[in-house]
Amino acid sequence: MNIKSLLLGSAAALIAVSGARAADAVVVAEPEPAEYVKICDVYGAGYFYIPGTETCLRIGGYLRYDIGVGDSGTLDGVNNVADRMDGDSNDTYYKNMRFTLRTYTGQETELGTLKTFTETRFQFGNSSGDYDGSSSTGWQASNNRADGTSKTSLNFAWIQLGGLRVGKDETVYDQFIGYAGNVIQDTLIPFGVKDTNLISYYFDAGSGFTGVVSLEEGTGANTIDSYVPHVVGGLKYKSDWGAITGVVAYDSNYEEVAGKVRLDVNVGKELTLFVMGGYGTDDNINDFGTGRTQYKPWGGNWAIWGGGTYKFNDKTSFNAQISYDDWKNLGVAANVAYTIVPGYTITAEVDYLNAGKFDDADFNNWTKANKKSSVGGILRFQRSF
């Protein structure tokens, strides 16, 4: 009995000691629940909250593959190369692949909505109208053809608080009034030079009226040559039937004025039409410049654009545009766009350009192929997300 009691007592002592040590052991904290991304539907589809912040973010963009043939349009005309065997000049396709990355942010503050937008383009092609003519961006200076070198460009990068926007944007002169239709080559007769740094203010006057005032720096040869900026203003009235928009611009380099007026009409659910006219002074431009500026890039004093879109169904639409200017330059563009599946569209377009009045210095800017009349076509594949 004594031995048995001794063994039982020892076992009890060991259990007690083990219990004491277990009580003193470090307790591992359970992992905190994961913070999943939350949907933000304040600014539209695709936004989500950046974890730990009140900022909503959206990431989007597109991939686009263009195949062009012929002479006409801003894909820069005939892509002729020397035959590798006999040296003769041969025409061939001009192509461009583009990946565009876009970011959008939005956040509510005591001073209004704080928004940002960026767009960066990465490109590779043997000819593309987005190349600016310098050898560093993929051009061969000797023959004005893109050599296949890739190019990256920052097309948008702006910050907007309330109605005040600052940064890199397209000129208000173009984006506020709208572009010249839903055709690919909408600049057969150009209506504006897009890129610029700016400070602009947008306001809503109520009852369908909105407006904007913008101080702009211009780009390239149209960059301001003093501390005086280019000035652009616009006013729009929008209703269920369509819209009326006007913009006016003061070019501080040449002290010239240009403006455009546009009418959009919703004829029905299937058909929308537009007409846009532009007029600009050119006395100082003709004396000291080339006859064109950032805000009057067409030939002569006036130009007109018109066209529309007809939707056959949810997947297929027909788009057309015709344009004409004071120098008797005529442009015609038409395409059929077909959405195979949501987010993936194929567009086939035909373009025609007839050059009217021109001089030797401007000739290649209009026809590229050294022809009075030129025809071209584009097949575009685009996946948007």
From TrEMBL:
Membrane topology: Multi-pass membrane protein
SUPFAM superfamilies per the UniProt record, alphabetical: Porins
InterPro entries: Porin_alphabac
Aminoacyl-tRNA synthetase among keywords: no
A GO term, aspect molecular function: porin activity
Secretion signal span: 1-22
Family: Belongs to the alphaproteobacteria porin family.
Domain remarks in the Swiss-Prot or TrEMBL record: Consists of 16-stranded beta-barrel sheets, with large surface-exposed loops, that form a transmembrane pore at the center of each barrel. The pore is partially ocluded by a peptide loop that folds into the pore lumen.
Name of the protein described by the UniProt record: Porin
Organism: Mesorhizobium metallidurans STM 2683
Gene: omp2b
